[in-house]
Amino acid sequence: MTAFETPRLTAAEVTEDDISELLDVHLSNQAYLDLTEGSGGSAGAYDRGMLERDLMMSAMTPGRHTCVLRLRDSGACVGVLDRMDENPNDGVPWIGLVMVHGERQRNGLGAEALRGLAEYGQAHGWTRLRESVIVGNDSGMALARAVGMREVERKPHRIAAGDCELAVMELAL
């Protein structure tokens, strides 16, 4: 089922058939994995089992959707977008992750996906959209700002790679 479309992209719920391509997307973003992941004492470690765990956690969370991003013209997998219809902590829709394959970055695909999600949200009654960006993730922050998000707060957080600080970004819809 397609969640939304943009001029160049389709966003559809992830299926078992998408996992290998999504793993390739993750592994093409080693700097991000170094910032966020870790297993067995190795920073940046990420594998199929970890991706399958992440997808299972997404599927078990009510209102959470993980979508594969594909080019409309070729069907090539170019990224992943994870979102929540409503975060139980604040009642606001949230982006959990937007990641574009390393070889496809700097072509506006991430911004296009976020704008497509914002349009989808507006059509479904959302008035704002939030995401957290790890302080130090300069490309993530640049993407959030490129689509018009503004920082509304900072807070400490613990992720697999350890303690970090999050910048909460918000887009008025």
Characteristic key phrases:
alpha+beta, globular, 173 residues
Describe this structure in words.
- The protein is built from 5 helices and 10 strands; from the N terminus they run E-E-H-H-E-E-H-E-E-E-H-E-H-E-E.
- It has 173 residues and is α+β, with helices and mostly antiparallel strands.
- The chain has an 8-stranded mixed sheet with strand order 1-2-5-6-7-8-10-9, sandwiched between helices. A two-stranded antiparallel ribbon has the order 3-4.
- The model has no long low-confidence stretch (mean pLDDT 92).
Q: How much helicity do the residues have?
A: 25-40%
Return the average pLDDT rounded to an integer.
92
Shape category:
globular
- N- to C-terminal separation? 24 Å
How many runs of DSSP E, i.e. beta strands? 10
H/E series: EEHHEEHEEEHEHEE
Poorly predicted ranges: none
Percentage of residues in strands: 35-45%
For the largest sheet, list the strands in their spatial order.
Answer: 1-2-5-6-7-8-10-9
Number of helices, counting only DSSP H or I runs of 4 residues or more:
5
Q: What radius of gyration results from the CA coordinates?
A: 15 Å
- By helix and strand content, what is the structural category? alpha+beta
Oligomer: single chain
Biggest sheet record: 8 strands, mixed
Task: Describe the SSE topology.
Layout: E1 2-5, E2 9-13, H1 19-27, H2 30-36, E3 38-39, E4 42-43, H3 48-60, E5 64-71, E6 77-84, E7 94-100, H4 109-123, E8 128-134, H5 138-146, E9 150-159, E10 162-172
Parallel strand pairs: 7-8
Antiparallel strand pairs: 1-2, 2-5, 3-4, 5-6, 6-7, 8-10, 9-10
